[in-house]
Amino acid sequence: MYHNTMSMATGEDDLHWKNLYSATSGDLDLKRLEEAYKGWSETYDEDQVKMKFNGPHQAAQKLSSLMADKSKKILDVACGTGGVGKELHSQGYVNIDGVDLVQDMLTHAEQTGVYSRLEACDVIGQGISCPDGTYDAIVCVGAFNQGNITQAVFPELLRVAKKGCIILIVMREAFVYTCPDFKNGQLDTDILMRAQNGIWKYTLRETVPKFIGDLSGLLYAMEVQ
Ligand SMILES: C[S@@+](CC[C@H](N)C(=O)[O-])C[C@H]1O[C@@H](n2cnc3c(N)ncnc32)[C@H](O)[C@@H]1O
């Protein structure tokens, strides 16, 4: 299985990771994925601290360097318990919405008090209930992973993005090479093709050290045209 090589480094040998990986190792099964996150929601935040998950902070810092106006409207895709929203708020952003598949994760996100609107939905299969062209920035952190968020989400992100919207994705770097949905350059090719077709400008692709523990992340930024 694609994840095993990293488990010792991040504590992924624990029960919640096992449930998650078991839910995402075969064909996409949203019910199992939902159950896995539902069972994790209570301890998710403390586990992120233990695993030294720096992705939310790194994403918020990067957005701050790309989008100075703190009143702009941001969508946090797969917001989970709200770690990214908290970091965006610390950077001064005040207009943040979040969407996630799992209501139990959103219940924690709501408690952060930093989101204007939260919605439970499968962003790929159902989409988000908001008008076209709503957001100035869209962030997705730690959710590009097998059986979670994949490049299949791009049409919906582009629908809800305004012209000029910054789309920021931060994920574990190794997943680009190991996850069946991304490997052999599939994710990079999809992003590049959309850039070549004038859908977005491909602004950044950079490695982020210590995304989770000592493991690197990969950050993509695109600007919708
Ligand atoms: C590893 S967590 C990351 C949460 C948060 N972004 C963070 O940085 O802590 C992945 C999240 O993706 C959500 N997710 C996975 N597939 C989804 C989908 N199709 N639609 C919406 N959310 C999804 C899960 O419910 C989970 O909360």
UniProtKB/TrEMBL annotation:
SUPFAM superfamilies according to UniProt: S-adenosyl-L-methionine-dependent methyltransferases
Domain of life: Eukaryota
Family matches, as Pfam families: Methyltransf_25
Domain spans labelled Methyltransferase: 74-164
InterPro entries in the cross-refs: Methyltransf_25, SAM-dependent_MTases_sf
PANTHER family to which the protein is assigned, alphabetical: METHYLTRANSFERASE (PTHR43591), METHYLTRANSFERASE-LIKE PROTEIN 27 (PTHR43591:SF101)
The protein's name in its UniProt record: Methyltransferase domain-containing protein
Species for this entry: Strongylocentrotus purpuratus (Purple sea urchin)
